[in-house]
Design a protein that fits this description.
mainly alpha, 4 helices
Length: about 130
């Protein structure tokens, strides 16, 4: 049976996992110096934080979009004369989602935008 665990792939000749880590640290100190390494680590930490913030924001947008899609499914059961306009943040979220999907929002009612968003999202998932 072949052992394909990730740490076995890092072994180079007589060097084990810990020796490789020490060699990498020594090379990094030699190449970048002791002052540059903390700056690079700080930059990496900030980049990771920004990535996580972006991910959380995108997840929130997807949930808002899913909420708008659920509203459209519920609205299809109602008649066209019973449209109730969205107010405030919900309207802004719907417009933002439509624009991100490349849908023109000018002159369209909330229900029209909801249907277009639902149809566009449905096409991309198919």
């Amino acid at each position: 049976m072949i052992n394909l665990l990730p740490w076995t792939l890092l072994q180079l000749g007589p060097f084990g996992g810990m020796e490789i880590i020490l060699i990498i640290i020594a090379v990094a100190v030699f190449l970048f110096g002791t002052k540059k390494i903390p700056e690079m680590a700080r930059s990496l930490g900030k980049a990771t934080g920004e990535f996580r913030k972006g991910k959380v924001e995108m997840d929130k947008e997807v949930k808002d979009l899913e909420g708008a899609t659920i509203d459209v499914k519920n609205d299809t059961d109602r008649s066209a004369t019973s449209e109730q306009p969205l107010l405030g943040e919900k309207r802004e979220a719907l417009i933002r989602a439509a624009k991100e999907l490349g849908i023109s929002t000018e002159g369209k009612s909330d229900n029209e935008l909801r249907r277009l968003v639902r149809d566009t999202v449905g096409e991309s998932n198919a």
